[in-house]
Amino acid sequence: MCGAIGEFGRSLRRRLESGKQQDIRAKKQCLRKLRPTTTVSHLPAVRLRGLPFDCSEKDIYDFFLGFDVLDVLLVSRRWRFSGEAFVLFGNIGQVGYALQKHRHVIRHRYIEIFLTERKDYYQAIAAEVSRIQGDDVTFASARTVHPVLRLRGLPFSASRRDIVNFFKDFNLRENAVHLVVSAEGRPTGEAFVEFPSITLSKAAMNKDKMILGDRYIELFPVYSYLNQTSSSAFSSTDN
């Protein structure tokens, strides 16, 4: 989503619970420094490693206070927090500032910060959904078995139950719905929804532009990113 990054950045935030909405302007000098490594092929995100094992999303939002943080995804392995996380920002310029916090401290731990790519971020989402559903599977199998749709344009009052009802023919559970909210806890009008099969997620695309509440809902097939090999280009399907 990189022309999509603008749209992703404008609304996307905490599918899974927090984000920030201020507009931090990237300086031209910083962008020049970043140009060799941070291009539009990258999601505006970083990967953190070495986090305390009791680290919370709030700790990471506090660590990046003043940044336009849209999403924090804590990475678990075999039901335990791995000490890693992905942080998604509102624009690519903020990645450079985030990298400057490499080796800064969260509760006596030196935190390593690395560039990441969109495939890694979405694979982590797929693995987390798989974990929530009780399946201990690899990223590769999660990519195949658990297709995801992104919803945009939701009423700000929409709940998980509302979205389950919107997809009432698809036998979804509420924990398959991940609402995106800001750091202040305000809904952004976006959500991720995990379907039990590719067949069902494709069928669910027929509800694109249908109404929930008084809003037309846009649907985007995130699973198409997850199913690509690591060597293929990771391009958006929402233009």
UniProtKB/TrEMBL annotation:
Pfam families: RRM_1 (PF00076). GO terms for cellular component: ribonucleoprotein complex. The keyword Repeat applies. The lineage of its organism: Eukaryota, Viridiplantae, Streptophyta, Embryophyta, Marchantiophyta. Residues 45-114, 148-220 form the RRM domain. The keyword RNA-binding applies. One of its GO terms (molecular function) is RNA binding. It comes from Marchantia polymorpha (Common liverwort). InterPro entries: ESRP, Nucleotide-bd_a/b_plait_sf, RBD_domain_sf, RRM_dom. This is RRM domain-containing protein. Keywords: Repeat, RNA-binding.
